[in-house]
Amino acid sequence: MKDPLADEVRDPQIEAYFGRCMALLVAAKTHVRDRRPERAVAIWRQLINEGGKDGDTARVDFAGYLFDEGRDAEAERELTAVMASGRVHSSAWCNAAVLLEEQGELEEALFWYSMATDRLTPEEIGGSRRLEDLVTGRRRVKWALGVPLDDLDLLGEQGDDEAQDRESDLRWLLRNPVVIDERIQVWDRGEFDAGVPWRNHFIGTDPDAYCHQAERALRATDRRAIIATWTFDGFVTCLEDAKFELDEIPGGRLIDWPPPRNKPCWCGSGLKYKRCCGGPIPVAEPVSEVGTLTGYRVAHGG
């Protein structure tokens, strides 16, 4: 079929590789860029009238243009027509959910993502990149809305906002050791390594002050507790994968507190507990300020 409105801008290489629909949509965007919106609209309408999956894809593309033009009601009508098709696992459906997310319509986007994913099995998700994208989108929007993630969400990829929030929360927990449910999370003493300057900026440079800070928190509870130590590699692993709970610390140790006075100190100094953290410690000691991993790409190992 001839597409005269697009012939002068259609890319034959795009058409050969991605198909006619994509070539026409690229042509439509070219017309919009070159201030020929009437030609772009004609292409979208042509594809929409032809129906099917290509028609759905064109509707979503057209809706994006309408949103950009401030014609929100018209854009929403186009998306409603896509929903009416019932093709919940199509690329158009995924694109519509992403479009709503980009418009800040998070609850509506979550509805689209959930309709497409609620009944999926892990096996189905693992066998399709498109389904993985839909689950990832649902996870991303849930996190933005403050909705708890479920096991299905964890099959999707972690979004940037979630990664930053989880890093901030975990970093605060380790920066300010406190006993929660008879457990305290601390950096392992071995992580205060003078040979890794940038990591010292993140963790700190004074292991004695840090361990005394944790010891004061433990003594304040006046009851037995578990000390969970964290390695930097374990920290990175936990940020990569939200399935890790804080009591499943990759690379860390679990230590009963308090240890016997004549046994090695829990902090790993090599001294007896009574001559280290179990002895007199100052009421308060300053702990060096620490930085952030932002810019180090935690998800890729630093």
From TrEMBL:
Name of the featured protein: SEC-C domain-containing protein
